[in-house]
Amino acid sequence: MNISENLKKIFLDRIKAMPYKVQGNHRIRRMNKRLHKEFDKTWVKLEKGEATMEEWTKALNKWLQSELI
Length: 69
Hints:
Strand content: under 5%
Radius of gyration: 13 Å
Order of helices and strands: HHH
Helix content: over 70%
Largest sheet: none
Structural class: mainly alpha
Number of helices: 3
């Protein structure tokens, strides 16, 4: 299993463990969208070798925590 497959597995496992919740507040939805984009950018940087696994994990955690609000 290479790094990309490992990251994908971690990502999908974490997403699967999240409870389903419908967001009603537009400010929270906007924050979630912004953090999701930030996470995507960090993932691309990691693939290019411009970011660390720690930065990727931090971005993932920030995004998932915002989804729980």
